[in-house]
Amino acid sequence: MAATKTAPPAKQSQSSPLVSLWNAYNESTSTRLKTIDAFLVFLMLSGIIQFLYCILVSNFPFNAFLAGFGSCVGQFVLAASLRSQVNPANRSEFKEVSPERAFADFALGSIVLHFFVYNFLG
User: Fold this and answer.
1) Distance between CA 65 and CA 59 in Å, rounded?
2) Where on the tree of life does the source sit, at the highest rank (predicted)?
3) How many Å is the maximal CA-CA distance in the chain?
4) End-to-end CA distance of the chain, in Å?
C-alpha cells in the first residue's frame, strides 16, 4: 500500500493590525505627506537622542541643550502644523490657506524660531 500525501491546509493570510495600518498608510498617503512625516520622525528621534545624551552623559553647556531641544520641539510643532494644513483631508478646515501659503508660514516660522535659538546659544 502506497501512502498518499495530502497537502497541508492553505494558510489564510492574516496580517497583523500594524501591517494593515502600514499598508493603508502607504496606499492612501501622498508623497508630500510622507516626506513631512519622515521629517517629523527625524525631529522626534533627534530630540530623544539629545535628551538621552543630557541625562546619560552631560548637560555641561545647559543652554546649548535647551537650544537644541527647543529647536527640535519648535520645528516639530511647525512641521506638524504644515502637515495638517497641506493634508487634503483637512481642506474643509483650511479653506483660505493654500499649500504655498502654508509652506511660506512654515518657512517664516522656522526662520524666527532659529533666530531665537541662535540668540539663546549666546
Assistant:
1) 7
2) Eukaryota
3) 90
4) 90
pTM, 2 dp: 0.81
- The whole-number pLDDT of residue 68 equals 92
Cβ 110 vs Cβ 75: under 8 Å: yes
3-state secondary structure (DSSP) of residue 40? helix
Residue 58: count of CB within 10 angstroms of its CB: 10
Residue 88 Cα distances to 6, 28, 33, 56, 105, angstroms = 52, 11, 10, 42, 18
Q: Compute the radius of gyration of the chain from its Cα atoms.
A: 23
Ramachandran class of 86: left when φ > 0, alpha when ψ lies in -120 to 50, beta otherwise: alpha
Give the relative orientation of helices 99-121 and 62-86 as an angle to the nearest 10 degrees: 180
Q: Exposed, middle or buried by CB within 10 Å (0-12, 13-18, 19+), for 39?
A: middle
